[in-house]
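ok here's NodB homology domain-containing protein, seq below lol
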Amino acid sequence: MDPKIVSYECDKWLPKEPSVLITFDDGYKDNIEYAVPILEQFGVKAMFFVITNNMESHSEDCNNSDASHLFMNWRDLVEIENAGHVLGAHTLSHPKMHEISMQTSQWQMEESIKKVKEHCSNPENPIHFAYPYGFIPQQALDFPKGCLAYGTVKAPPNPWNEVPNNIRRTYVPTGQMNIWSAMAKSWREQWFELQ
Ligand SMILES: [Zn+2]
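and the structure came out like this:
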């Protein structure tokens, strides 16, 4: 990928004020059942990274199977996209990418992005990518144009527009809502330190 293209596209989207991006990994059914209505209520758009093999196994309605309720299906994903959220791929089968070959890592990334693209309603939209567990391959993957790749807290704390292929994310701990405002305050301070 041409690094100039990446930096141009990132610069175009740089926010002018402290901003957060909310992301969901793995494509669990609770994303559409619980998270999307709450996001809607607050007028917030988010990004959803799905493990595409799980989507395929549970694409049909099988109300008698518990597994069918665990992950979203492709129709759910289209509904999410039509509501203005952004779609992403999270590999075909959620491997630890530092433990598999470069060739397999590249295939897992490319094929999962292709699957999401095939099912989404607007093939022009770039499909983004998140590394399972935040483990990145030994060498850099060759991402499609316009694709940003997301890590976890394992990623170094660099500005996302400078390292668009391993963007640091942090967890919002469940069951500890009392610490969320302190976390937001610290992110805000980091924003101004970087300016
Ligand atoms: Zn995951």
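fwiw The domain at 3-194 is CATH 3.20.20.370 (TIM Barrel). kinda neat tbh
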